[in-house]
Design goal:
Elements lengths: L4 H23 L6 H25 L18 H21 L3 H25 L9
Amino acid sequence: MYIHKPVYELLPYLYITTGVTLYVMESFSSFGSPLVYLSTAMFYTAGALVWVARSAYRRTNSKYRVENRKNMIQFPEVVYEYLPFIYLALGLVFVSQVPGLYGLIPGMLLSLAGALVWMIRAIYRSQEVPSVRS
C-alpha cells in the first residue's frame, strides 16, 4: 500500500490531534464514555510512538554523543523520548479536569514545556553534530 509523502509525514500529528480533539470534546460534554477515553489514549499513544520511531530512524546526530552537560539528571531512555508527549497530556488533563486557575496555570505551563521540548528535539535531531578530532 502506497501513501503519498505529505500524508505519510502528517500521520503522527494527525493521530495526536485526533486524540486531543476527542479528549477535549468528551471531557467538556456530559457523557464521559470510557470507550471515547480509550480511543483518545490509543490515538495519542499511536501518534507519540510513530513520531518517536521516525525521529530515532531519521536522527542525524549521534544519540551516544549527546550527553547531559552537567550530568545532573539521568532519565531512562524510554521516559526521555516520550517526555514532551507526557507534558502535553498532563497539561491537557490539568486544563480540562482541575477547575479555575489551579488547573489552567499548571496545565498551560506543562503544555508549553511539552511543545518547546518537542520543537527543540525535532530541530536538534535534524542537525549534524560536528565530529571531534582525537
